[in-house]
Structure prediction request, 184 residues.
Amino acid sequence: MSSYLSDLPTAEWLTGLATFLLVLVTGIAFFIQSRQNRFALSIDLLLKLEDRFDEQRMQASRGKASTFLRGQQGLDDPSPDWEHHLDAVLDFFDLVGHLLRKGALQKTAVWSVFFYSVHGWYCNAKDHITLERERDSTVWEDLVYLHSELVITQKRQLGCEDHHPSLALKKGDLIAFLEEENAN
Prediction:
């Protein structure tokens, strides 16, 4: 009988330790599963955004907005509703920036899918963006954030600190981008 009583604290201690280890393993498994689910949802969201960017309605807005921006350079006559279309494109990227800022999207995945488009539109519409932000600094703040983060990521991917041709777009690069957007 005395042997049973002396083993009781050890049994309780082992039960407690086993329970603690089980809770720890369950917590780690939950954490890993949660990260995997978050990654999958992030990729799914990014692919949906990419599809939305390539939808016919957005392509029409991109075409009309690029015609306006080409018109600013004396190359095309802008459509009368150009501002609506340019704002639609910039609003789309503002949404992407918001989702990135809130952690719903991964920066390198967004960079991989949208860097070229964000950078091209941002550089071409910089005057319009600046004018609107002077009136209201909250307008397209997530677009500005998105562009800044993607430029930093581009520099990191290229392993450069200074300007790279993919960052320092010249007038010919800007026009070529707009022509490409207009052709889509």
